Amino acid sequence: MPRRNSTSYTAMIAGLSRSGFVAESRKVFDSIPPFEQNVYSWTAMISSYTHNRQHMDALKLCSVSYGEFFPWILPNSFTFSTVLNYKENVFVQNCLIDLHGKLGNLGDAENVFNGLTNLMIVKALAIFDSMEEKDTLSWNIMISGLAECGRGIEALEFFLQLCRLQGPGTYPNSSTFTLAITICGTYSMLKTGVQIHACVLKRGLTESNSYTGNSLINMYMKCGSIEESERLFYDMPRRDVISWNSLILCLGQNGHSKKAMEMGEKALSLGIYNHNTFIALLTSCSHGGLVDEGIEYFGAMSKSSGIEPFLDHYVCVIDMLGRAGKVVEALNFLRKMPISPNAIAWSTLLSASLVHGNKEIGEVAAHELRILEPSNSASYVMLGNLYRKTGHFEDSNQILELMNKIDLKKEKGISWTL
């Protein structure tokens, strides 16, 4: 009998699999000496599992090949083709997200995640409908889940159903109203938000619950009603740090940067601040073009207030410099950061380069962004638009050709031309 090798082992696994002998094929697989193992024998075993509907085992084995014990064996496209199409339960889909991410297919991972959340919501709705007794907590969970999955309108419909029921143990509480108000702000539904606000006032919830009051401030801010946000702030019997941060951000994002800074100074003097207070202040300075003031706040964070900057604070400074046309300074600041810049940081710089027509820095930002997120079409589209804006039409066309070559689709809402 000829000596067994990787080819014969693989053939034995495949043959046993076709006959339904999965356990026996696994014994053969486990008996393969390490130096004889390769991607083909692993793929054969994974295929054996999927062929016999043992999908969990297939996914586990596929993930193991990435482990430290088998660094020389990496799954190929055929390996993944045996597992990536099975999507019948939550555990499997979580594995798929992980596998797509390891492959660098972030777009595919996002698609699986979206499918996963939709599947979870469908199952949650089925469970909810089957419940004979539903309390307020049950309704709140469904409203929150729908909102988190981008189904805000459905979430509000659930809220209205709950308001109509108003039975013993089934009535909207402060958490329910806070959820509904937040949804109205997210979708800029001012009219509905005002109606919900009226219900909140009837129940006296703004007096007893600061979370509801804070959500109202944010809702009116997102809907552009600055005066109402201010009035609510001053009418609150108790203002916490979230209340102050909400108003500072509200003023800063809506063209009242000086006033936002005044409120920020009050909060700092009263000792009512946290890291989000400085994000609100830096954002206000960014929107108002107050670069010197923003740099001063950034420097005072750790020196005067004892708060070490997070990555979000650094991104705020990059945005502030970029908006002011200081794109070179923004790049220098980014490169000197003690924290590794993420995709948001580079995307912020690329966006500023596009606005101000800085081709050289835009190319640097786009290159770094593509390394971090190779499947993100935004970097390609923004760079293409930057080339067109600066008159480099041939380079712009090459970007479009590259996107077509790697089959990268333009995201909805992203314009190719300015």
Automatic annotation (TrEMBL):
GO terms for biological process: RNA modification. The keyword Lipid biosynthesis does not apply. InterPro entries: E_motif, PPR_At4g14850-like_plant, PPR_rpt, TPR-like_helical_dom_sf. PPR repeats lie at residues 135-165, 209-243. Keywords: Repeat. One of its GO terms (molecular function) is RNA binding. PANTHER family: PENTATRICOPEPTIDE REPEAT-CONTAINING PROTEIN. This is Pentatricopeptide repeat-containing protein. It comes from Papaver nudicaule. The lineage of its organism: Eukaryota, Viridiplantae, Streptophyta, Embryophyta, Tracheophyta.
